[in-house]
Each structure stands twice: as structure tokens, then as C-alpha cells.
Specification:
Layout (H helix, E strand, L loop, with lengths): L26 E12 L2 H9 L7 H14 L1 H4 L10 E9 L4 E12 L4 H19 L7 E11 L6 E2 L4
Helix pairs in contact: 2-4
Length: 163
């Protein structure tokens, strides 16, 4: 396997390892991730109207996503702790497909990217939505969580197809 195609978190013998980023230069890093929580139409209406007993679902999910991103290195074993310079979470209601759209944008200046922080923010926000609305809809489905784009670093930029 070429150096470019090798898994970075696995050493030559196949053991998991943390990547040494000490020799890399600092650069601005940005990552954007997205995911959805699909639900019944009535559940989405309750969220929209702020009518769930647990409170304001969208504000709580936004805060949970921020908290999750900040703790990514504690949750994902081989992630480096990263000082985030900015994190934004956008939540939108799609009344046609009965889903909440979650988009997170993470930024830092450092030696490694913020893809995992953006993905963790989306996932944590989605789990929070599920937790807050599960009393009325246990059939909710979390899905399509993916990296939309990343900028910065030695491997260059990435933009998902269809963007």
C-alpha cells in the first residue's frame, strides 16, 4: 500500500497508534459535517412549536453539539485534543421529509484537522434530539451523517460529491 493510501492510525505491524503531528506546520483547518434525525410529522411539529415536556429541543441540541465537539478527543481514542477557534451548529426543520437537518462547522489553527469535531458535533446534537423526543417517537432514525467538506492541511481540500 502506498504511503498516501495507508491508514494513518495503524503502524507497520497493524497496531493502533496516535499519529505524530509534531512536525506538521500550523494552518487554518475547517470542516463541515451534516446529518439528519428523521421522525414522524407530529414529532417535528412538537419540536417546531416547543411543545415537548423536556423543553427547547433545538437550543439544547445546539449546546450539546458544541459540548460534544469540545470533548471529541475524550470520546474517540486516537484523536488529538484540538483548541477549537470556532464551532457553529445550524439546525433546520424539513417539514416535507419530517426531519431535523443538523450542520456543524468547526475551525481551528493547528497541526491536524477538525473533521472529527464537526462529525461529533452533529452526532451529539442528533442524539440529544432523539433523547428529548423519544417519549413521543421511539421510531426516530438518525442517519446520513457525513463530512461535507474540509479545508487546510497537507492533504488538501475535500468537498463531498453533490455539494
Amino acid at each position: 500500500m502506498t504511503e498516501e493510501k495507508r491508514l494513518t492510525h495503524v503502524d507497520e505491524t497493524g497496531r493502533a497508534r496516535m499519529v505524530d503531528v509534531g512536525g506538521k506546520p500550523d494552518s487554518e483547518r475547517v470542516a463541515v459535517a451534516e446529518g439528519y434525525v428523521f421522525m414522524q410529522a407530529e414529532t417535528l411539529k412538537l419540536i417546531r412549536d416547543g411543545a415537548l415536556k423536556k423543553g427547547d429541543v433545538l437550543t439544547t441540541a445546539r449546546l450539546a453539539g458544541i459540548m460534544g465537539a469540545k470533548r471529541t478527543s475524550e470520546l474517540i481514542p486516537l484523536c488529538h485534543p484540538i483548541p477549537l477557534t470556532h464551532l457553529e451548529i445550524e439546525l433546520a426543520l424539513d417539514e416535507t421529509e419530517h426531519k431535523v437537518i443538523i450542520r456543524a462547522s468547526a475551525r481551528t489553527i493547528g497541526k491536524t484537522g477538525v473533521e472529527m469535531e464537526a462529525l461529533t458535533a452533529v452526532t451529539t446534537a442528533a442524539l440529544t434530539i432523539y433523547d428529548m423526543a423519544k417519549a413521543v417517537d421511539r421510531g426516530m432514525r438518525i442517519g446520513d451523517i457525513r463530512l461535507l467538506e474540509k479545508r487546510g492541511g497537507q492533504h488538501g481540500d475535500y468537498v463531498a460529491e453533490g455539494m
